[in-house]
């Protein structure tokens, strides 16, 4: 019997008892549907997190702070003064209220730079502009994203910041557009805005910069991103009139390492820094815990779907065993006519695989339909505050894997009945009444 | 004398074991020459069906030797055995064994499908066999919609489609009324005379048995020696 004939007969045979096949298909459908939806949620949430990760920082970046003094606990009272230590600075937004940290000095920066594996280090210069104004439409407060300089933004329009450019560039969050007087994101790209900043002596000065792009809001708040040139420019303006001898202290520094560094290499760099008294974090460290929680939830949901599929697998065993029983004579006849056991086995296995394919294909299609619908409803409903979040997304590869896995489960479920069929003795089968 | 198509030498077969052991066949010897028509006659439970199953290589004898064209059947490999069943043997059953929901043509070409013959050739050979049995107009009907006589003709077409050397018929007219049965008998004997197909018929119908060249009587698993067709008649009549 040719392979094609086996496939054709298997498909015909599975439609012989439509109700029974239909019910088995429904069981598989439920499993495949659940698996597709959970994997879709996994894909959607992961894609969103990855988008957020790139908003926090690039993959080849370490955020470095001075390690906290272990001895200075609250019960001991203040530590003795040490003139060699730099002053403490507040970490500001996002950190524990009132927490302070030892500032990094230029000497620290040099030490970090000398660490093996670190390519470059930049102090995180903090600038605090007073306002931003476009075309005389009024002045509005400007919040600067501390990480905006080094990260890749999720753009609504325009281009990313160019840090090697000597021109002053900024990225505006979408929420700024209306107030500043732009019609839409595209209209903002290429325009020039003026930024007001107060210098050391209390005089307000104005710096102009070009809007190169508009970025979507992220989970981590919405601040404008400034390129290196603009940060330097604003810093220069802000420190105008500063007396000489004011020591420069930075809360954090940003170090770059080789983007192709392995996990072990990164750990080595971090250990090295920690031995020198600096704590460092990669973006993965920051986001890792969050991602782990999501993965655990997705894993549990997937486990339920797999349990459903295993139950459906027993449905296949049952369906095919009944089918073998019903078709005892037919199998006997085929064997009497010289069909070998292997072909009989193939015929019944193929039928199982086909039932699996039918259930999984229908389940996957339904899941994509329902998932997309719900995702769109949620994106415009309760998740509208999180732009860019499509809760359910479908990756073709994972869809193909689901269909493949279901067909494999079906095949495994089919082996038992198929073996029973293949082992039948033609004579016993033909005598069977 | 040429090598017999099938030669059984004191073959026996039993079922069960211990107290439940039942000797269906207790040592039967016979030779079947190519082109012969042979009737295996006996009551139900006499072992005649077991004998046919052994001759058709559907079952293995427990004792004795079965030669197929001079070769010991036990020494045949599974592949050769399947080829033999598929290409050299044709089967006609009392209960038809047609797949009810498949078309007549699909049923008829089953041996060709098993042999891996292409769809086009299957169709032409299947139609040729159906035409030979005047069933060509029913080719596309579902098998379950045929009458008893048509079903048996479809079964004969299926047995013929591979141009077999031997046709085994197990009570071919058992489920048919006498007029239809006579038509089916005529077809079988015509195939025997015109195509030279060896015919092995298992029956308890003495009239059918009498039409064969030779009759083998089986009783309680043993062959009864009787040569005259008239003797057959009487004994058979008593049985039926």
UniProtKB/TrEMBL annotation, chain A:
Residues 74-94 are annotated as: Disordered. Keywords: Cell membrane, Membrane, Transmembrane, Transmembrane helix. It comes from the Bacteria. The keyword Ribosomal protein does not apply. The chain crosses the membrane at residues 21-42, 296-324, 345-374, 394-416. It is a multi-pass membrane protein. Residues 21-268 form the MacB-like periplasmic core domain. Residues 303-426 form the ABC3 transporter permease C-terminal domain. It is found in: Cell membrane. Residues 84-94 have a biased composition (Polar residues). The keyword Cell membrane applies. Belongs to the ABC-4 integral membrane protein family. This is FtsX-like permease family protein.
From TrEMBL, chain B:
Signal peptide: none annotated. GO terms for molecular function: ATP binding. InterPro entries: AAA+_ATPase, ABC_transporter-like_ATP-bd, ABC_transporter-like_CS, MacB-like_ATP-bd, P-loop_NTPase. This is ABC transporter ATP-binding protein. Residues 6-238 form the ABC transporter domain. The keyword Electron transport does not apply. It comes from the Bacteria. Keywords: ATP-binding, Nucleotide-binding, Transport. PANTHER family: ABC TRANSPORTER ATP-BINDING PROTEIN MG467-RELATED, LIPOPROTEIN-RELEASING SYSTEM ATP-BINDING PROTEIN LOLD. Belongs to the ABC transporter superfamily. SMART domains: AAA (SM00382).
């Amino acid at each position: 019997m040719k392979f094609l004939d086996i496939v054709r007969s298997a498909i015909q045979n599975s439609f012989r008892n439509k109700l029974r096949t239909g019910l088995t298909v429904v069981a598989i459908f439920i499993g495949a549907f659940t698996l597709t939806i959970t994997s879709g949620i996994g894909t959607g949430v992961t894609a969103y997190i990855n988008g957020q990760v790139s908003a926090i920082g690039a993959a080849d970046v370490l955020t470095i702070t001075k390690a906290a003094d272990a001895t200075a606990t609250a019960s001991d009272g203040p530590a003795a003064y040490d003139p060699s230590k730099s002053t403490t600075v507040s970490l500001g937004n996002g950190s524990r209220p009132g927490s302070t940290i030892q500032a990094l000095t230029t000497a620290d920066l040099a030490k970090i730079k000398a660490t093996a594996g670190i390519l470059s280090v930049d102090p995180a210069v903090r600038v605090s502009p007073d306002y931003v104004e476009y075309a005389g439409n009024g002045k509005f407060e400007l919040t600067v994203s501390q990480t905006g300089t080094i990260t890749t933004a999720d753009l609504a329009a325009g281009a990313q910041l160019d840090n090697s450019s000597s021109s002053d560039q900024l990225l505006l969050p979408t929420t700024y557009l209306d107030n500043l007087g732009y019609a839409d994101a595209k209209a903002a790209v290429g325009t020039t805005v003026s930024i007001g900043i107060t210098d050391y002596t209390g005089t307000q000065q104005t710096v102009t910069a070009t809007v190169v792009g508009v970025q979507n809001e992220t989970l981590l708040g919405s601040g404008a991103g400034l390129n290196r040139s603009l940060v330097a420019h604003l810093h220069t303006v802000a420190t105008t009139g500063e007396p000489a001898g004011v020591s420069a202290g930075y809360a954090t520094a940003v170090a770059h390492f080789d983007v192709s560094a392995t996990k072990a290499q990164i750990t080595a760099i971090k250990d090295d820094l920690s031995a020198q008294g600096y704590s460092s974090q990669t973006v993965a460290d920051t986001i890792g815990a969050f991602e782990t929680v999501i993965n655990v939830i997705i894993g549990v949901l997937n486990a339920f779907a797999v349990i459903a599929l295993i139950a459906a697998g027993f449905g296949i065993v049952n369906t095919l065993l009944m089918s073998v029983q019903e078709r005892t004579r037919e199998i006997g006849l085929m064997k009497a006519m010289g069909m070998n056991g292997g072909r009989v086995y193939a015929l019944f296995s193929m039928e199982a695989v086909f039932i699996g394919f039918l259930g999984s294909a229908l389940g996957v299609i339904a899941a994509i339909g329902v998932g997309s619908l719900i995702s769109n409803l949620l994106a415009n409903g309760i998740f509208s505050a999180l732009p860019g979040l499509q809760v359910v997304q479908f990756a073709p590869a994972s869809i193909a894997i689901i269909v493949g896995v279901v067909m494999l489960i079906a095949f495994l479920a089919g082996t038992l009945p198929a073996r029973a069929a293949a082992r039948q003795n033609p004579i016993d089968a033909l005598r069977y009444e | 004398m040429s090598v017999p198509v099938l030669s059984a030498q004191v073959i026996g077969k039993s079922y069960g074991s211990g107290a439940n052991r039942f000797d269906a066949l207790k040592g039967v010897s016979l030779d079947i020459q190519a082109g012969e028509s042979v009737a295996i006659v006996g009551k139900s439970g006499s072992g005649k069906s077991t004998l046919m199953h052994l001759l058709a290589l559907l079952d293995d004898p427990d004792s004795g030797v079965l030669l197929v064209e001079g070769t010991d059947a036990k020494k045949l490999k599974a592949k050769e055995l399947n080829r033999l069943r598929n290409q050299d043997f044709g089967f006609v059953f009392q209960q038809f064994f047609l797949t009810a929901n498949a078309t007549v043509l699909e049923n008829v070409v089953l041996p060709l499908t098993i042999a891996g013959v292409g769809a086009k050739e299957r169709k032409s050979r299947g139609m040729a066999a159906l035409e030979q049995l005047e069933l060509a107009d029913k080719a596309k009907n579902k098998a379950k919609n045929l009458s008893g006589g048509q079903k048996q003709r479809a079964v004969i077409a299926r047995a013929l489609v591979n141009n077999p050397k031997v046709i085994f018929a197990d009570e071919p007219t058992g489920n048919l009324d006498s007029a239809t049965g006579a038509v089916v008998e005529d077809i079988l004997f015509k195939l025997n005379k015109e195509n030279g197909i060896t015919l092995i018929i298992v029956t308890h119908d003495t009239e059918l048995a009498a039409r064969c060249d030779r009759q083998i009587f089986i009783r309680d698993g043993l062959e009864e020696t009787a040569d005259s067709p008239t003797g057959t008649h009487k004994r058979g009549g008593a049985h039926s």
